[in-house]
Amino acid sequence: MNHPQPYLVGLIGNGIGPSLTPALHMAEGRAQGLDYVYRTLDLGALGLAPEQVGEILRWARSLGYNGLNITHPCKQLVLRHLDDIDEVAATLGAVNTVVFEGGRAIGYNTDTTGFAHGFTEALPGAALDSVVLIGAGGAGTAVADALLRLGVGHLSVVDLDVDRATALAQELGGRHPLTRVDASSFDKLSVLLPGADGVVHATPTGMAEHPGIAFDAALLHPKLWVADIVYRPLDTALLRAARAAGCRTLDGGHMAVYQAVDAFALITGIAPDAARMTAHFRNLVA
Ligand code: NAD
After folding, report:
1. What global pTM score does this model have?
2. Which of 31, 84, 89, 153 could form a disulfide with 129 if both were Cys (CB 3.0 to 4.6 A apart)?
C-alpha cells in the first residue's frame, strides 16, 4: 500500500515553548487528513546560539523537513542562509517562514501577509487615509509594511523610542515612495488620533504581564477603528475601551491565526480552512 509522505515542520526560536503555532498546524493537518508533525526547535533548550540558524536549516533540510517557521531572534539572521526570498519578505528584511522546495530554501514573511489577511477579513471597508501605528519594534515593522500594501495614505509611526520610530518611518518611506510616512513623538498622539481613521497598537502593553493601555483612552472616538496585535489576552483593556468609545475593533488573534494559515498553505500547497483554524486558536487562548 502507498503511504503519502508525512509532513515534517518546525519552529526555530528562543523561549518558544508556549507558542500555539505547533498545535494550530497539527490540528489543521489532522483535519485535512494529512500526517503532519510540527516540532519546536528551541535554541535555549538545545543549547544553540541564534547565529547557528544556518546550520539548523541545513540539518532540517537533510533530515527531510518540509518547512520551518522562524521567530525571535532569528528572523533577520536567517536571511543570508536562504536560496531565494519572496518580494514581501525581502523588502521587509525579515523571514518567518522557510519552505524547502526542490533542494532550495525559500523565505517568506507571513506576519505581514497574516496581518493584512486578518485586517481585510475582520475590518472590511475600513478607511485608510490616515493611520497611526504605535510601536515600531519587530511586530510593528511587519504590520507597517502590511498597512502600506493595503493602501494607507498617511502613516504616522509613534514609539517611546523616537529614534526607532524615525528609523522605521525612513525605511518605509524609502520602500513606499508614493505614501506619506512620518515619525511622531508620543506626546503628538493627542493631535494625531482625533483626525485619524485608524490606530494599530503594536507594543507589549496590554499583555497579561504588561497590563494597561499604552496611551490615553480619552483620545478614542467613534470614527476611529482600533487594531490591537496583543493576543494574550485577546480582549485587551484597549479593545474594551475602544468598544466603549464606539470604535470598530480588530484583536491580535487575527494576525496570529493568519500567519499560521499562510505558512500552512506555503508549506503544504494546500489551502487550510481559516475558519476552522480560527475556532481552534480561540479555544486554545480561552
Ligand atoms: P519589540 O520589543 O520588538 O517592540 C516593542 C516596541 O514598542 C518597542 O519599540 C518599544 O519602544 C515600544 N513601546 C513599548 N511600550 C510603549 C508605549 N507605551 N508606547 C509607545 N511605544 C512603546 O516587540 P514586538 O516583537 O514588536 O512585539 C510587540 C507585541 O506584539 C508583543 O508583545 C506581542 O504581544 C505582539 N505580537 C503579536 C503578534 C500576533 O501575531 N498577533 C505577533 C508578534 C507580536
Report:
1. 0.95
2. 153
